[in-house]
Amino acid sequence: MTRGKTTGTTQGTTQGSKPAANRGWVSFVGSGPGDPDLLTVRAVDLIKQAEVIVTESPEHAPLVRTLLGLPEPVEDETGEAGEPGPAPVVGPELVDGGFGEDGQPLTHAARAKVVVRYAKKGFRVVRLLAGDPFLYASGPEEAQAVAKAGFGFEVVPGVSSVGAVPAYAGIPLTTKDHREISVITCGDKIDWSAHAGDRTLVLLSAVGQIGDIAKALMLAGRSPQTPVAMTRVGTTTGQETVTSTLEHIAADARAARMTPPAITVVGKVVDLRETLSWFESKPLFGWRVLVPRTKEQAGTLSSRVRGYGAVPEEVPTISVEPPRNPLQMDKAVRGLVEGRYEWIAFTSVNAVKAVREKFEEYGLDARAFSGLKIAAVGDKTAQAIAAWGLRADLLPSGEQSAAGLLADWPEYDDVLDPINRVFLPRADIATENLVAGLVDLGWECDDVTAYRTVRATPPPAPTRDAIKTGKFDAVVFTSSSTVRNLVGIAGKPHPSTVIAVIGPATAKTAEEHGLRVDVMSPKPDVEALVDALADFGAARRLAMIEAGDPVTKPSSRKPSGRRSKASSRV
Length: 570
Prior knowledge:
By secondary structure, the chain is an alpha/beta fold. The chain has 19 helices and 20 strands.
C-alpha cells in the first residue's frame, strides 16, 4: 500500500461526486489484536458494506482484500500501485490513514480530517483501528471530530490485545485467587511504588524499558522471583513468549531478541502458562508450509494448515484451462441432454466445475441430469456435485480413486441398462485405466477432455530460493503432477524440508524426483493429509521435549543431507 495515497483497489465505486442527499456515516471498527479470525461479525458486515475504508496499519489492506475476495493491486512500470486488473473491481476505496502525502505519520487530528472529508462526500466510511477503537487508540479523538462536523457514527468494539495476547499465551489475567489487575502504558513516568503488591500487572510498550521497570518493582517490594511473561506479535503465527522472573526478564528478553509490539504480564498468573499454553503448542506452530496446488483449490488446504498453527504459502503449480477444442465437450453435453448416456462419471472437482460451466453457457441446469446415473470418485467430488443440487449414485466403498470406482462399478446388463454409454469428462492428462476398466465391464466410454492442466509460471525468486535453501518447514503434495510441476518451475525442496504426500502414487513420483517422503496421508483427502502432517509435527515436538531439547522447526536444522531412514526423523 503506497503511503499517502489510496491503494486504487476499486476506482469505479467511489471516484467522482456523490449525491448530497446521501448523508455520510462513519463506523469506528476495531480489527482486533492481529488474528483476522478475531474480527467480530458486525465488523465483517460493515467492511463488506463500506464505500471507503480508512486503514491504520499495513496489515489492514490485505485483511480487507481477503475478506472481500479482491485481487492485490498491481504495479505499473514506475512502481506505483495501479488498477488490480484490466477492469475496475467493485468494492470499497482503501485510504491509507497511517501516513500523509509527505510520507510522514499522520497525527490523530490529521487522520480525523481524512475521515471527515469522506463523510462530507456522503460515503459510508469504515475507520479501521487496531485492537479496540476506544481502548488505547485514537478512536475517541476522531469520533469527537466526526460529531463536531455533524455526522453520525457508531463504534464497533474490537478484541483488545490487553486480554487477547495473554490469553493466546495461555495466561489468564484473573483467577479465583487473583482478581485484581492494572494495565499500565509504560511510555509515561510511572510511580512503581504503587504497584508493590500482588496485583497482576499488564504492561504495554515495556520492551525497551523492561530492565528499569523490573528494578523499580523490586525496589518497591516485589520479589525478584515474581513470574514475568513477555509475548510479542500475539495472536499471530509469529507469536513468541519468554517466561522469566523480575530478576532475569531483562537479560532473557534481550537474549530472545524480543521487539515491539509486545504485552508483558507480571504476577503469579504467569505460572499457569505451563499447563494452559494452547496456541504456541499447536503441532505445526510457526511452520512455513508450502502449498503447491492449483490456485482455485488451495483455499481449503491452507485453511486447515493455518488451523494447526502454520503459515501456508500458496504456490500455484498448475493452471486449469478450457480445452483447446471445445467441440468435443459441446457434443457430449448435447448428448447428455438428449439422453445418450446411462452414466456420467466425475473423477475430480475440476470436472464437475467444467461441466457446470458448460451447462451455464447453454442456459441449462441440474434438471438436464434427469434419468442419468452419476458416479463420483470420492467425497470431495461428491460434495461438488451436491452443491449443484445433485446426488452421486455411486461412490467407491473402498479406496477413493479410479481403481476404487472401478471395483464398485456394475457390469453392463443389456436387460437392466437401456443404454450402454458412459460420459467421462476429465483432464487432458488423465490415464487410460478407468476407460479400459469400463470397457472390460461392457460399457462404451466417451472420454472427453473437459479441461487442460497447464504448468504455471515460476514463483518469484525469493520463493524459489526459500524452496531450495530449506526456508520452508514442509511441503504438501496433493498429486503427482504437483510434484513434477513444482520441481520443474521452482526446483527441488531442500533436504531439511518435511515432505508430505496424499497417497502412494504421489509418494512414488516424489521418490523418483529424489525426495524422501516423511508423511503419507492414510486416504486421498487433503484434510487427512494435513492431519497426518500435524500428527508428524506433534510427535516431533514431543520427542524434543522428552529429550530436553528446545522445540525447533525443521527449517532451523541444517543437515548436510537427508538421512536414509524415515524413523530417524521425529
